[in-house]
Design a protein that fits this description.
Number of helices: 17
Strand content: under 5%
Number of domains: 1
CATH superfamily: MFS general substrate transporter like domains
Radius of gyration: 20 Å
Order of helices and strands: HHHHHHHHHHHHHHHHH
Length: 402
C-alpha cells in the first residue's frame, strides 16, 4: 500500500517547497545565459545562432543525459541524484564567469546541462510516486510554477546586474543563489517512501524506453512537448533583438523587465493543472495552444504594449500546456514512470535545442517575421496533435458508454 504524503501536513508542504526550489534552481541556471545572447553576440562578434548555443548546449546536454540520470536514480535513489544535480550545477555556475574563451564557456554549459538532467525527470517521477493521483495535477502545477519563477528570476537578475555591472558578476550571483537553494533542498526534501531502489541492466532500461515510446498516446505527447518547448525557447531567445533595435532601443535592463510576463506562467501552470484534473487533459490543451498562437501573432504588431500583451498570452498558454502534458505522462505511463517522464523531457529539451538554434537562422532570413513563422508552424502541428488526442479520448469514452 502506497504511503502518500498527507495533504496539508508539514512534510507535504516541506516537500512542495523543496521541489519548487529545486525547479527554481534548475531553470534559473538553465536559462541564465538567454538574456545574454545579444551581449555575447556583440562582445564576441558572433552570429545570433552561435550566441544562442550557450542555451542550446545546456538544453541538448540535459536532454541526452536525462535518461542516464533516471537510470541511476532507479538504483541510487531519487533524492541522491537530485541533490547531486543541484549542488554540482550550482558549483559550475560559480566557476563559469571565470572564463573568457567562448568554447570553454560552451563546454561548461554542456556539463552543467548534463548535471541538471538529474533533477527534472526524477522530480516528475517523485511527484507521481509520493503524491496521491487526485492531487498530482495540482502538485505538478506548483512544481512547474517553480520553472516559471526560476526562469523569470534568472533572466531578470542577469539582465539588471549586467546592465549596471557586467555579465560575469551577474552569473556569479546566480551561481551563489542557486548553491544556497541546493543546500536547503538537501536538508528538507523527504526521502522517497513509495520507491524501492533497484538495479537495472542497460538492456532492461532500453526495453522500458522502447515500451513507452511505442505507446501511440505517449509518443504524441512527447512530440507535442518537442513543439511547445521549441516554440517557447525560440520566442525568448530572439525577442530581445527587435526590442533592442529601432524604434524601441531598449536597454539590457529594460529587456529583462519583459520577462516579468513569466508570472503569467506561475498562475497558468497551477490553474490549468487543476482544470485538467477536472475536465481532462486534451480539452485543456485544445484551449491552451491557440492561446500561444494568438500571443505569437500579437508580437508582430508595432505597439510595444500589444507586443507585451502578446508575450503574456504566449507565456500563459505555454506553461499551462506544459503542466497538463507533464502530469498526463504520469497518468498514462504503465511501465516505469521515471523513464516515461525522462522520454517526455528528452523530446521537450531536444525541441528547445533544435528550434531554439534554427530560430537564429530564421531571424537572419526574415527578421522577427521569420521567427514567428517558425513558431507558428510548430504550434500548428501541436494543435493537430492535441485535436487527435481529444478525438481518441472522446471515441474511447463513447465506446465505454456504448
Amino acid at each position: 500500500m502506497e504511503n502518500y504524503l498527507i495533504t496539508g501536513s508539514k512534510a507535504y508542504w516541506r516537500t512542495i517547497i523543496s521541489l519548487f526550489l529545486g525547479s527554481f534552481v534548475t531553470f534559473a541556471l538553465l536559462y541564465c545565459t538567454q538574456p545574454l545572447i545579444p551581449v555575447f553576440s556583440k562582445e564576441m562578434n558572433i552570429q545570433p545562432a552561435y550566441s544562442s548555443l550557450t542555451v542550446s548546449f545546456a538544453t541538448a546536454s540535459l536532454a541526452i543525459f536525462m535518461i542516464i540520470m533516471s537510470w541511476l536514480s532507479d538504483s541510487k535513489g531519487r533524492k541522491k541524484i537530485m541533490v547531486m544535480s543541484l549542488l554540482g550545477s550550482s558549483i559550475l555556475a560559480i566557476m563559469l564567469p571565470l572564463f573568457s574563451n567562448f568554447y570553454i564557456i560552451l563546454g561548461i554549459r554542456a556539463l552543467q546541462g548534463a548535471l541538471l538532467a538529474g533533477f527534472p525527470a526524477i522530480a516528475m517521477a517523485y511527484i507521481s510516486e509520493e503524491f496521491d493521483h487526485a492531487t498530482a495535477g495540482l502538485v505538478m502545477g506548483i512544481y512547474i510554477s517553480g520553472n516559471t519563477v526560476g526562469g523569470l528570476a534568472g533572466r531578470i537578475i542577469v539582465s539588471f546586474i549586467t546592465d549596471f555591472f557586467s555579465w560575469r558578476i551577474a552569473l556569479e550571483f546566480i551561481g551563489l543563489l542557486s548553491f544556497a537553494c541546493a543546500i536547503w533542498f538537501l536538508f528538507n526534501l523527504p526521502v522517497s517512501q513509495n520507491f524501492m531502489p533497484r538495479k537495472q541492466s542497460v538492456k532492461k532500461t532500453l526495453q522500458l524506453l522502447a515500451e513507452n515510446i511505442k505507446n501511440p498516446k505517449l509518443l504524441l505527447i512527447y512530440i507535442m512537448g518537442f513543439l511547445l518547448m521549441g516554440s517557447f525557447v525560440t520566442m525568448y531567445n530572439y525577442i530581445s533583438y527587435p526590442l533592442m533595435a529601432p524604434p524601441y532601443q531598449f536597454s539590457q535592463a529594460a529587456v529583462g523587465c519583459i520577462f516579468f510576463v513569466y508570472l503569467m506562467g506561475t498562475f497558468s501552470s497551477t490553474f490549468m493543472g487543476k482544470m485538467a484534473d477536472k475536465h481532462g487533459s486534451p480539452k485543456v490543451l485544445i484551449v491552451g495552444i491557440p492561446i500561444m498562437m494568438l500571443g505569437c501573432l500579437m508580437t508582430l504588431v508595432c505597439s510595444i504594449y500589444l507586443k507585451i500583451i502578446g508575450l503574456a498570452f504566449f507565456t500563459f498558454g505555454f506553461f499551462g500546456c506544459h503542466s497538463v502534458a507533464s502530469s498526463w505522462i504520469g497518468k498514462t505511463a504503465t511501465n516505469s514512470k521515471a523513464h516515461a517522464s525522462s522520454l517526455y523531457l528528452l523530446f521537450y529539451y531536444t525541441g528547445s535545442s533544435c528550434l531554439g538554434t534554427i530560430g537564429g537562422q530564421f531571424l537572419l532570413w526574415r527578421g522577427w517575421h521569420g521567427v514567428t513563422l517558425l513558431i507558428g508552424i510548430a504550434l500548428l502541428f501541436a494543435i493537430i496533435i492535441a485535436a487527435n488526442l481529444l478525438y481518441k479520448e472522446n471515441f474511447k469514452a463513447s465506446c465505454k458508454n456504448y
